[in-house]
Design a protein that fits this description.
By secondary structure, the protein is mainly β. It is built from 6 helices and 13 strands. The strands form 2 sheets. Strands 2, 3, 6, 7, 8, 9, 10, 11, 12 and 13 form a 10-stranded antiparallel β-sheet that branches. The relative contact order is 0.11.
Length: 315
Amino acid sequence: PNAQASAAYYNGGPGLTDNSTGGFAWPSAEGNPNLTPEKADTWTAGFVLSSPFDSAALRRLRLSVDYYNIKVEDAIGQQSVGIVMRTCFDPSLNPLVSTDPAAAAQTAACRAITRNSTTGGLDNVNLTYVNNGRFQLSGIDAQLDWGADVGPGTLGLNVQFSYLLSFKAAELPTDATVEYAGTQGPTSSGLNGGNYRYRVFTNLNYTVGDFMLGLQWQHLPSIEDASEPLFPNGTPTVGAPTYDIFHLNGSYGLSDNMTLRFGVENLFNRAPPLTGYNPTNTNPAGTGNLPGGNLGTGFYDDNGRRFYVGANVKF
């Protein structure tokens, strides 16, 4: 009865009004013993160049570049509430919705949607894991290493650069793939999102005897909200601006068995950006979210400047 009410609810059934403008559902997850292995085609190519020069300033120069292209079919991921609703109520996915709501209500997707027996309101949505997803990504990873003797010590530089050429994904087999490169999406098919067009991580360090001091710089470019590729003409939603964060660290060898380490994380106390709000909103602090939700995400620092001191001891 709940499943039949679900179909009728969205199709003007007797005694029910059209309430398709919004709602809230409690998702319940369950396993799926019928999952099959994912299928992937992976292509990689790369090269390494070492400095041909003998000069003190260039002989430790090294560059590596790798290209990758990964295509995954039958990707495993947990269904979203939205996908279950679409699979039940979208006539292109469940034609019975338009011709026979009672029969449509007995399909697996519609039976996964339960309703409050008193109010008819949306209640629980049972989610499972499926092999419906597919995605393909390609990009270039590069690393530059350099070192030289400067004064009494050695100066070292390591730069890691990643460039995402493309990241296309679809949550259903019937959906066209969507280009997500440069956006915070997708999060379907077990993917983590955060598909920046490029990322740079730089490590500069100076070593004198047993003492080392290093500075790390992480750069993230601006990124669009995950909804932008799906609804390019819809209400704009703020993604995230350019983000730079620095960390300072050092170490000193007190003896053969003990090394003192210290550092400052988020040296300039850079706050994470707010995302997920309309750019015309005059109160983003009241309506925006930390990237990835109110609990933040690993791409940005949520903890502010902090100091640490520790020691590594060998027994």
